[in-house]
Specification:
With 304 residues, the chain is an alpha+beta fold. The chain has a single domain, classed as Beta-lactamase. It has helices at residues 3-15, 28-31, 65-77, 98-102, 113-126, 130-142, 151-160, 162-173, 181-192, 198-204, 206-209, 224-237, 243-249, 286-299, and strands at residues 39-44, 49-53, 59-60, 195-196, 254-256, 261-266, 270-275. The strands form 2 sheets. A 5-stranded antiparallel β-sheet has the order 2-1-7-6-5. A hairpin with a 3-residue loop joins strand 6 (261-266) and strand 7. The protein is globular. The two termini are 19 Å apart. Bound molecules: 6-diazenyl-5-OXO-L-norleucine.
Length: 304
């Protein structure tokens, strides 16, 4: 299929639609990003790659990193992960506190902030040098050793992360955080600050389209069964209170971040990463979602 031609077609179609989204500005460092950038990259499980526009430009991956940390924790602690977090869609914004008290400190799923913070706590217990080990893991998925944290963004997250601090304290009060709170939050704020391009993200997620094996290295990251379950979690929980709409319109498992990135996976076929910084009201990329909707409609390459 001529993916690059399709990318161009959709991009030009979307130019005529006003981009009503807004760049995330609750983290000062994100507010400075040029909002009109756009990139897309698709990688097939056979290793073919297709790019358009700013596909090589790095941006803040934000909550997309929650998939990497979840996978790292899941691959180590296996099903005991479900003693610490649920696996149901929350139907609430990513930083919501409301359910956590009712659920006695157990987050609904690992992709809302509360769940991702518990996963950081698990990694703090499991890994010798969590921040270095997480980075090495992501670098090994892509073969790119320059992927890194942005310390300015991590600091900015820390200074403005009042809700995240509330979440971790609430969970600590219920006994669902085992390590020192500041240490856990340092990991969380750093993973949000990781910078990657669409090309790097698309390659890093490829093992999820390939039954758990990194195609270019042959390394198994997850069993086929846990890969299926990770994709199912992305399908049902990857877009917070917009997971239903993403499923309805795009029809692929995926994960978004407030940096404007979205990665989606078609098991056995391809991964696609798109970046457009302006966000809709739910905190997901406005044009990124529209682009993916058009892409899976035109190509008929959704899972439904
Ligand atoms: O915890 C936060 O506020 C952010 N650093 C991450 C949020 C995020 O990307 C939510 N996703 N759409």
């Amino acid at each position: 299929m001529h993916y690059e031609t399709i990318f161009q077609e959709i991009y030009h179609e979307l130019q005529s639609i006003e981009n009503i989204g807004r760049v995330a500005d609750y983290i000062p460092e994100l507010a400075d990003v040029n909002p009109d950038q756009f990139g897309v990259h698709l990688t097939t499980v056979e290793g073919d790659e297709f790019s358009f526009a700013d596909a090589e430009k790095r941006f803040s991956i934000q909550s997309i990193a929650k998939v990497f940390t979840f996978v790292l924790a899941y691959s180590r602690v296996k099903s005991s992960i479900w003693d610490r977090t649920g696996l149901e869609p929350a139907g609430t914004p990513f930083n919501s506190l409301v359910q956590l008290e009712y659920d006695q400190g157990t987050p609904r799923n690992p992709f809302i902030n509360a769940g991702a913070i518990v996963i950081c706590d698990i990694l703090a217990s499991e890994l010798a040098s969590p921040k270095e080990n997480i980075l090495s893991f992501i670098r090994s998925l892509t073969g790119v050793n320059t992927i890194n944290y942005n310390p300015m963004v991590a600091l900015s997250e820390k200074k403005t992360g009042f809700r995240n601090h509330a979440l971790v304290n609430l969970m600590k009060s219920f006994g669902n955080i085992r390590n020192d709170i500041d240490m856990v939050m340092d990991i969380y704020f750093h993973i949000c600050s990781i910078e990657m391009s669409c090309r790097e993200l698309s390659k890093a997620f490829l093992f999820l389209a390939n039954n758990g094996v990194v195609p270019y290295s042959g390394e198994r990251i997850l069993s086929a069964s846990r890969t299926k379950r990770t994709n199912a979690l992305m399908q049902t929980c990857g877009f917070y209170d917009e997971a239903g709409e993403f499923s309805f319109k795009v029809g692929l498992p995926g994960k978004s971040g407030v940096g404007g990135g979205i990665v989606a996976v078609h098991p056995e076929k391809y991964t696609i990463a798109v970046w457009s910084p302006r966000l809709n009201k739910k905190g997901n990329s406005y044009k990124g979602m529209l682009f993916l909707e058009e892409f899976t409609t035109k190509t008929r390459l959704s899972i439904f």
